[in-house]
Amino acid sequence: MNLKPFRFWKGKILSLSLILSLALVGASPLWAQTAGFAYVAANSSATGSGNVSAYTINATTGALTPVPGSPFAAGSVSSSVAVSPNGQFAYVANSFSTGGIGNVSAYTINATTGALTPVPGSPFAAGSVSSSVAVSPNGQFAYVANSSAGGIGNVSAYTINATTGALTPVPGSPFAAGSGPFSVAVSPNGQFAYVANVFSNDVSAYTIKATTGALTPVPGSPFAAGAFPNSVTVHPSGQFAYVTNSNGVAAYTINATTGTLTPVPGSPFAGAGALSVTVHPSGQFAYTANPFLGVAAYTINATTGALAPVPGSPFAAGFQPNSVAVSANGQFAYVANENSRDVSAYTINATTGALTPVPGSPFAVGAFPVSVTTTAPASSCKHDDEERDRDERGDGDEHSEGHERGDSHEQGDDGHKGHKKHDCHNSGEKDSEEHDNDKMHESERGRF
Fold first, then answer.
1. ∠ at Cα 78 (201, 278), nearest 5°?
2. Are 41 and 83 within 8 A, CB to CB?
3. All domains of the chain, ordered by start, with CATH?
4. The pLDDT of residue 149
5. 3-class state of residue 146 by DSSP
6. Is the pTM of this model over 0.85?
7. Which of 25, 99, 282, 353 could join 310 in a cystine, given CB atoms 3.0 to 4.6 angstroms apart?
8. Is the dihedral of CA 315, 286, 426, 103 positive or negative?
C-alpha cells in the first residue's frame, strides 16, 4: 500500500452601535470584508499528527489571512477536509487512530471568525485508512471513503445532527466499495454518491436513500475509470462526473434517473497524473492539481461535458500541488502544495477561466497540506442579513410569526421538511463535497 495516509511525517449579529460606528469611520461591516473561509488539512512531518489551518478570504483580492487560533488540532494523518453547505460544520478524515482505524474530526465553525471548535464526541469512528470525506448538499449526511489496509474498502455513512454537527452511523454502514476507495463525492441533488477506487481502477456509484442516507449500488456499478483513479467530483448541474487518473481526466455523463455513468466522447482528456479535480460553481470551468504541470484549467462543454484546455493552462503552482478548490463566489482558486508547505491563490477570469496569482501568494501553511476546501461565511447570506436587519429594527416578532406559519420552510426535493435553502449557502455546495477528493503523490504511485 502506497497511499498518502501511510506517510508519517451561521452568523453573529453585530450590535447597531457597532454598525453605526463602522459607518461613521467609512469602514465596511465585517461580513462584507470576507469572501468566506478556506480550510486546509495538513500533517506534521515528524509525527503524522494532523491539523486544520483556517484562513479568511479577502473579498477583494482573494488573499488568505490566518484565523486566530489556527491551526486547529485534528487526528492522525489527516487526509481530507469538507465543510457543510450551510457553513456551520467542518469535517476532517483522519487515516489512523488507535488500532489503525481511521476517524472523523468534527468542528463547529464560528460564522464571524472562521475559527473551529470540536464537536462534542469528536472524533467519530470510521474505517481503516479513512481517505476522503464529503457532505451531502442538504447537510444531512456525511460520507467517508475508507481505503482499507487489507485491500477491499468501504464507505462509512453518517447522519449529521443539525444542531451540534455530531455524526451517527447510518444503519447498514459501512457500505462496500472497490479496492482502495480514495475519494468520495455526492451529486448536487443529493441522489447519488460516487467513489473513486484507486486499486480496482473504477468508480463505485450509489443511490442515496433520502430518508436514511443509506447507499445502494447503481445498476452497472462499478464503472471503469482508468489507471489509479484518485479524485472524483460532480458538475454543479449534476449532468457530468469527472475523475482524475494516471492517464488524464475521465469524464462521464450521469443518467439523471439511475445515476449510471457513460464515458464522454474524447475521454480521458489530457492531464495525466492529476491528483485532484474540481468544477467552478458556474459549471463553465474545471481545474486539476497536477504535480507535473501545476494547475490545469479547462472549459466545459455545457452540452457534452467535454473538456478543452484554457489558454495559458497549465498555470504554475508550488511544489507538489495535490488539491484544488474554488471559492464559493467563484472568484478565486486555491491549491494546496504539499512539499512547499503553502497554498497558491489565484483570481479566476470569469470569461476565460484563466488564473492569475493573487498578490502575496503563496500563503504559508507550516505543515504538509494535503486537502483544501472553501466555504462562504453564513453571515454573508442575504437571508441572514435580512434577519439581522429586522432584529436591529426591532422586527423580531414579525420574523417569529413567519416561522410559526412555516414561511421559512419548504418541501425539499428529497421529500423532507427542512429549512429553505438559500442561494448563498448553495453556492458552497461544490467545494464542501469534494475537496475532499484526496490525493496521492506521483512518487507513491510509482511504488504501486
1. 55
2. no
3. 4-377+428-445 (2.130.10.10), 384-419 (no CATH)
4. 61
5. strand
6. no
7. 353
8. negative
